[in-house]
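Researcher: Structure prediction, please.
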Amino acid sequence: MQEVRLVDENGGQLGVKPIQEALDYAHGKDLDLVEVAAQADPPVARVMDYGKYRYEQEQKAKLARKHQVSINVKEIKFRPKIGVHDYETKKGHVVRFLKQRAKVKVTIMFRGRETTHPERGRDLLMRLAEDVKELGQIESPPLLDGRNMVMVLGPTKNAGVAKDAQAEESQRSEEEVQADGGGEAHAPPRDEEPPARQEVSEAQA
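Model: Predicted structure follows.
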């Protein structure tokens, strides 16, 4: 008769038992007999509530997937002679990516004689790293790769989607307050028409 090494529901070793005796033991406790080590000699069987066991394993797997971090890599490109406005705009993109807990590959593209001054690209990359240091840290320092110079930033512990959402909510509230205040401060006199057409023209221009 086939035998198994029997383990009770509390993990206690009950020794080697005939399979039928092990089944009777499990059924007597209104539990299941589950083979947990088929390659052992003799095989190991454990007494358990198999339905509960499967549920717990599924919950553990679900929790592990929930905490698993998926890292995306975003790329943004700069020119060494970038203007202040363009720099601030691109820096804003870098900040947004880091708050999404994505890595950011920052590339400086050199053209023509610009390749003779790689220090300008390096200075720009280090300036960016300093500006976003609360959210991003240097994972790969500036390295020259042909006509490009590349640096990789990774999110710090301070970077997170929740903080990003809070910042957007705060900014939205400030904009609403400013809009309300602006409407009262700039209300035109009764006999003066608001320059709506002029504002539209200026916005389109």
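Model: Confidence is low (pLDDT under 50) at residues 181-188, 196-205.
Researcher: Thanks, that helps.
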